[in-house]
């Protein structure tokens, strides 16, 4: 029998992030012919045609109290939609917001949660979710004990819906937010200038480590990134040394990324860094030490000085 699946759209700066479409792909598999619902929470969010992306019903909460994420207001909105949809599975992105909101909702509803899912397989109609353990050193398969349950989905790992476009019905939900629902209020958001491409959704990342030696040492990496349309990332070593902003940090205590191509420049490959990038589809490592651990997980390794190798790559990519 078909199931009701609720996807909580991942919204950033008033637009839906790609991972929402990836969640809709999983949701259609989990629904088994049932209904796929999407909750879009925010203020004046630009909502694309979600029927084409696999949604049957869209639940839109457009409220100024949701203009910026706060756990208490967003929790109220999700719980309200949960009551209307009565889903067997709730999907969140494993993003900054999803990582915060999903456990709050799971706890309120007394549900179990499977976090940071990178793949789903089915044994009959029973899903088996793949997720990393030991900071990404190994992967495990987890089956939910019962329904309903909560899942968070790692961006850039699962395929979007590729079935026939649906004609999604949109429901406008209005809520009244009182003081207890607004335990915190965001007064101001100060944006950091971290470049154009969103690191966690980037298809290509050029990343620098302590081997870049200075803030200026990132310049050749930025030039390569510009040519490739890539985002620039960093190891914690580079951030701690003050060569770049912590917003660029990839790893266990930074961002988790799964680009199609990850180019690691002057990064040794500590386990805490691998935790954030080892699921990248193709990894290229540039390091002058042939024994650097990064070469153990790299698909392609270049032993050499990054200040010589990176400009050469940039020139070659310019020709393509
Ligand atoms: P290094 O280990 O110093 O490596 C620099 C590399 O550059 C070397 O391999 C060297 O051979 C190479 N090199 C030098 N010059 C050149 C050149 N000219 N050309 C080519 N190669 C060159 N780290 C993270 O990255 N992300 C995290 O989220 C993170 N979280 C952590 C959490 C905890 C609790 C702890 C304890 C640590 C964490 N770390 C994290 C730190 C991690 O352990 C490493 O210290 C860090 O990743 C090292 O950064 P690095 O590879 O840039 O520097």
TrEMBL record:
Record family assignment: Belongs to the ETF alpha-subunit/FixB family.
Keywords tagged on the record: Electron transport, FAD, Flavoprotein, Transport
Domain Electron transfer flavoprotein alpha/beta-subunit N-terminal: 5-189
Protein name per its UniProtKB record: Electron transfer flavoprotein subunit alpha/FixB family protein
PROSITE patterns: ETF_ALPHA
Record-linked CDD domains: ETF_alpha
Superkingdom as given in the UniProt entry: Bacteria
Stored Pfam families: ETF (PF01012), ETF_alpha (PF00766)
SUPFAM superfamilies on file: Adenine nucleotide alpha hydrolases-like (SSF52402), DHS-like NAD/FAD-binding domain (SSF52467)
